[in-house]
Amino acid sequence: xxxSVESLACDRGGIPLLEDVSFALAEGEALVLRGPNGCGKTTxxxxxxxxxxxxxxxxxxxxxxxxxxxxxxxxKASLTVAENLEFWAAIHGGGxxxxxxxxxxxxxxxxxxxxxxxxxxxxxxxxxxxxVTARPIWxxxxxxxxxxxxxxxxxxxxVRAHLAQGGIALIATHIDLGLSEAASLDLTRFKARPRAPxxxxxxxxxx
Amino acid sequence: MRALLLRDLRLAFRAGGGFGLGLAFFLILAVLVPLGVxxxxxxxxxxAPGILWVGALLACLLSLDRIFALxxxxxxxxxxxxxxxxxxxxxxxxxxxHWLTTGLPLVLxxxxxxxxxxxxxxxxxxxxxxxxxxxxxxSVIGTFGAALTVGVKxxxxxxxxxxxxxxxxxxxxxxxIVARGAQGLSVATPLAxxxxxxxxxxxxxxxxxxxxxxxxxR
Lengths: 207, 218
Prior knowledge:
A: Rossmann fold, 28% helix, B: elongated
């Protein structure tokens, strides 16, 4: 079961950003999305994650197979590291919290409140959530923001282990993760032609 | 689902969680009204049902914008929308957590505040019953309003304006139950209507709330 996208077109705030995006990922494959700020990386990932409707095109992926991680980590400041992770594990049907903590080097911080974490530690906690979802396809939006070089290597190792288990990763990033096996896709190729908004369309009220 | 409820309750009781906000407001109102209106028991007894219900309603309103705004800001709402739980269930649980942390404490403390307002003795049972039946509707309707305004920065004013008209039927029938109870009249009609509002809101509004939430998340 892989992830495939055919002729996908995405809008952001009523403005067409991308069109005719196509790629396919089989088990164990990773794809790095590249392109300048505002080219539509986040929009494409939100469309694939199902948070935003697509204008045209098809996607195929196993049902309930996607785990999405973006700029906002969904961390509650007044819960401890372990409590934050236990919540997401419970929502996703009980992943192994202590293993996820160990893999993201958070075991020593488990009982600390999230409000006392540094930006990079919060980010590691946000990424540890991916491990407890036990989902095969990871949709990652700038996963390495505020991580130090060591943590980037740590996370690259986690992604590599995920791929080795037959997982899939779709990553938008500016930083080289050191995933030599990952293919790369430049989104500037798919820039949408300007298009007048259709009068009376549903989105008109929400612009 | 249970994990979400436990998390929301835990967050409400931890520092900065906002538990007690509505309760404190309710208490302040009931203490201030006799000071403003004057201490005549007859006057206070007459207005007590209305004051207590208006107080409960405003206390509920006070904490509505926290239902989704915090989860929206830190990204939890996006992640919950992609999690294997139905969004209708998520909004129902959110409404339940709001009721448990706001509505239920109001129900429990209301007899004490009735005492401050010289509420007639016959009305206490009806006060507790009417609040117990009516406050779930306030939480569910409020959750719908919070879902409508979730993307709006500082949407508190808009939320109040949207929700207050929807609260009016609950207020009218709720206060009517207590007023009739105080006079020893039959409360069957307003009680049935209040129960109907709550049952209808609990059954239907979660679908509307999750639909507008999906639109606001895109």
